[in-house]
Amino acid sequence: MLNRNYTLNEICVAPMQDLTTFRTVLDPSVVSFLGLYHDIEGHLESVINALARPPSVTSLRVNTLLCSSDSLLKDLSDVLSPYKVERHQSKDHCLWRMDIQKLPWTLSDPFTPQQPGVLAAVSGIQAEDKVSVYIDVDQQVHKGLRVEFEGRKVFVGNGTTTMSRSAFYKSTGVAVRMTEGIYRSPPLNGIFPEKCYLQNIPSMITAHYLEAREGDRIIDMCASPGGKTSHIAQLMRNNGTIFSFDRNENKVEVIRQLCQRLAITCVRAFAMDSTKLLEGEEQQKWREEFDIRPESFDRILLDPPCSGLGQRPRMRESMNLVDLFSYAPYQRKLFHTAIRLLKVGGVLVYSTCTLNPQENEEVVRYALDHFPVKLVGGPQHLSSLGSKGLTWRVKSEGEIEEIMKSTRDEHIPAPHGSQKKRKQKQVKIVMSESLKEEEAELVRRFDPSKDDGIGFFIAKFVKIADMR
Ligand SMILES: C[S@@+](CC[C@H](N)C(=O)[O-])C[C@H]1O[C@@H](n2cnc3c(N)ncnc32)[C@H](O)[C@@H]1O
């Protein structure tokens, strides 16, 4: 499922070519850093290649509060024919399998470049010409370029022009009718909005890991747009209380609207900085009103902001090592508040959608070393999904410093005309141990090159002593 549209000024057209392979463009320092952990027998290469493509299935979560998966499956099969709708092995998912060979190309391809989105096109292009469409990954193309662009570009599909080159820059409307896209997916917008929710499978697995029971008091520390909050509510049959926090009112409104759409009533959504839930005199009244106390919650989900390096498809990611290293300290901070709020015996699930071990296994290591928690596995029926965590660790600060030095001038160029110079600043390197073999067995890592989904990480903890 293609879930990202590209801004129109990233598109150029050129004479038709065959479909070619491409890989996600990442900052060289990030590639080298990830290579310290992943580059076993070229594995990182396959991961980066996989990131450039969408998973072959689109998944939907059935709202089991309003319908059964059988009834939704039937309704969807009728509406989405000839796309094949299947049930996932765990109960509340539905999948669309996109069979590249048999299905007609989807003409509503989101890459269709609307005029004036075409940035560059070789001279002589007329209406009804067959062309290939590319994205200018580094945003370096000057509008109006008449020759084929030699910089880094990513092929996204073939199409037929609806107008001549000169009209690209004057008329409005569709400039290229896409005939072959790299990605196709069924049209899902607005189909049974109250009965299902578009969500990737590892995210669905995360809510199952929490094993919420009816009547539980739960916190979702970083909840917007509410995908996991609403799933947890479903799994506890809308019975209990979920406090769902996010940083600002707009984001929280999105959670409320989703809950309303899915007929969920057990969620209390608030605009809060979750690192400060237990701080500040001015919030004392609010805490008393809603009984937000240390050591008092049955379950906590911590799905913090992360570098998102498991998201796919992704053409280009300009984050450098300094950006990448900024996430883990924040995640640890959120972890600290989360664990204080949890009851002894309560469950905390930690998840990210990144491949970065620093935000995954190393946050788990940090938690095991600093808080009274133990790692536990997820539900038995989901244990075959994903694979164990990494035990590999970076051997020394020197390895990272070496990368910083060697890639300092090699970062992804700033977009054309941008004032922002991307510098590889000095970064504070904090080394962490990784997981022991038996600990790595308990966490789940979803590998985009093997699991046909996004890159994801889940760990589940039980609190074993109080922190007072
Ligand atoms: C990975 S997203 C959460 C996705 C969500 N759990 C879901 O499944 O729909 C991370 C969220 O954390 C929020 N966030 C970041 N810092 C926060 C903080 N200090 N307190 C609360 N929310 C925060 C961001 O605004 C963002 O919406």
Automatic annotation (TrEMBL):
Keywords carried by this UniProt record: Methyltransferase, RNA-binding, S-adenosyl-L-methionine, Transferase
Keyword Methyltransferase: yes
All copies of domain SAM-dependent MTase RsmB/NOP-type, residue ranges: 125-464
Coiled coil: none
UniProt-listed CDD domains: AdoMet_MTases
Annotated positions binding S-adenosyl-L-methionine: D246, D273, D303
One function term, GO molecular function aspect: RNA binding
PANTHER family: NOP2 YEAST -RELATED NOL1/NOP2/FMU SUN DOMAIN-CONTAINING, TRNA (CYTOSINE(72)-C(5))-METHYLTRANSFERASE NSUN6
Record-stated family: Belongs to the class I-like SAM-binding methyltransferase superfamily. RsmB/NOP family.
This protein's name: Putative methyltransferase NSUN6-like
